[in-house]
Amino acid sequence: MSNSVNEILIIGLGLIGASIAKASKEKGIIVHGYDIKKSVIKTAIEDNVIDQSIDSIEELNNKSLIDKIDLVIISVSPKTTQEIINKIPNLLNTEITITDTSSVKGHLQITSISNLILSHPIAGSDKSGIASLDQNLFENKKTIICNPNNVEDVHLKKLTDFWKYAMQMRVSEMSVKEHDLLFAMTSHLPHLISYALIDSIRLSSKDIKDNAGGGLKEFIRLSGSNAEMWRDIFELNDKNIIKSLAGFQLSINNLLELIAKTKEIPDVFSHSDLLEKELDEIKKYKEDNL
Length: 290
Hints:
Blueprint: E1 7-11, H1 15-26, E2 30-34, H2 38-46, E3 52-53, H3 57-60, E4 71-74, H4 78-87, E5 97-100, E6 118-122, E7 142-146, H5 153-166, E8 170-173, H6 176-203, H7 214-223, H8 227-236, H9 238-259, H10 271-289
Parallel strand pairs: 1-2, 1-4, 2-3, 4-5, 7-8
Antiparallel strand pairs: 6-7
């Protein structure tokens, strides 16, 4: 393993932060941890999730960390990520490399920061909190890196090596704009749909009891994810989610017309031919209008 990261600080010891901490310790990295909840810090120390605790924001903003910490990982909700960045000015534009783990990036005001590269480890669970940590959560998964400020190669290499060798992840890079649109379609929209589906069942006043099939159970799992985090995501990535939702709504309308037989289905068309035509129509509409 690359030895460019020997000591890290993790801000936020929920599922992702605590899992990173535990996996790092397994690789021999010294882990400092901070969480706004004192009970979480206590658990992290007692369960050997971190080596040392930092007990206040004031301690986080201490210049003495510059000679000690190689990498700071901000692993909190999307809105709180910006708040944390604003509260550690003494660590900005230093030799420490700083990153985050949020799944939405466009709201972050970071143009004047020369040591911050954004990360999104694509791993998670409907569970949350330090009690749900999994030191193998990231193995063979993928991390997206966004480097909008073209941060120096030394920071980029340090961060890339950490994800590759300490977390055992694949790493790829894209722009913030590409990232937020892609994950609006592949992650944020599915969660939004899961909430809508479960809500529609609730409003129907039908008691499904143990009649939920495997597909519905997956929607139920998604809809049970951390409410605070997903509220932030829906609000902060709203424009991209609206675009994705509009495309999804068009697809639903097309299917509704077919099922209701308001659209004529030629006998000579096979199901695959028909589906291909529908998808082509949807794609063209998206390209022309979204």
